[in-house]
């Protein structure tokens, strides 16, 4: 299944010109200010199941988001058509929307002084010259390694290999037009195991900007099989309060709840359990949440945010104390503050603190729960109440005793965050929140 390999870098200059043309069209239609965001994505995804090809998907998508301002009124519209007529029509649609909106003194572009004057090379683009046939071979190899690892692995729910390129251009009527290109490649395997007690399902995946940094197909398949088989014959622990060790993937979600609570949208709507928390201790004193947006090659790296504001390193939490909220221009104005360059979220957030090896943390647990999966939406962002379904492994005397599923862990996020005892040495580098395992002193564990 050969195809011509597309390089999104070839579109970068054309997209920047289109952004310039759209801004000019907005001015022609009387807008006092405007901003445009363009994304072009190109990629390939192949899925196999039980050695057979299931899907092959080629994608090439382009979309334009256009926002115009008429004084304090704002209107937005989008299109995938880059013809001159479609652009004029879309700008007109945004203009008509603006006519019917209320004036908002907090709307408008970010301060022009905050736009970057230079865009560093962040080494985000590493294309993978991968044909559909080659992707299929990798997926088959990955799945076969998993199916052959343990006789209790009885089925596959699919193995996928994907390669994606993207080009993003943002421009506004301050005269700023910035762009960057990047790649993301991945391989994932989902397996099913069975024994006398029933069936269990689990997975593993690898993700990187550079295909050379991906784990091997055999490793992904075997790790998926190991994790799946380990979940067989689960038992129910006693109900009570016990230490909880969150795996890195689950720990990043926990930190994500805190980031959401100190984000401008939740704060100005008064929908956060961390209202007015600037300068207050909200985590254990040894914990720091540090953002590093400009690290070359990292998955969350970016030189400007969703409003064109230059990104920079900062602490959101330092030694347990909130140093900065997560703000874009609009939420900052609503709070009478200044943007932190985080329109669209955080970039490469690192969780730092007192660190021990995961083996040492497990060894110190007399009784506790290692959480490897969380289910449900039982998090109240206003009160901080936390109650979610969980699965993982029960720990006795410092060793994993048996798998656990269908339990509930509960507490309040304020208490959880202030009760983080230590961090592991196993940072998950596949996410924008780069978290290691995280040990909480005590939460309520209840069998369902």
Can you give keywords for this protein?
448 residues; alpha+beta; PmbA/TldD fold; five-stranded mixed barrel; 17 strands; 23% helix
What features would you describe in this structure?
It is a single chain. Helix 3 (132-147) runs parallel beside helix 4. The protein is an alpha+beta fold and 448 residues long. It has two domains: 9-228, PmbA/TldD superfamily (PmbA/TldD fold, 2-Layer Sandwich), CATH 3.30.2290.10; 234-448, no CATH class. A six-stranded antiparallel beta sheet has the order 3-2-1-4-5-6. The mean pLDDT is 96. It has helices at residues 9-28, 84-99, 132-147, 217-230, 248-261, 264-268, 329-334, 358-363, 413-418; strands spanning 33-49, 52-70, 73-79, 153-172, 177-195, 198-208, 240-246, 288-291, 314-318, 321-322, 349-352, 367-375, 385-396, 399-412, 420-423, 433-434, 438-447. 23% of the residues lie in helices and 37% in strands. Strand 2 (52-70) and strand 3 form a beta hairpin. The chain contains nine helices and 17 strands. The longest helix has 20 residues, at 9-28. The chain starts with 8 loop residues before the first helix and ends with a strand.
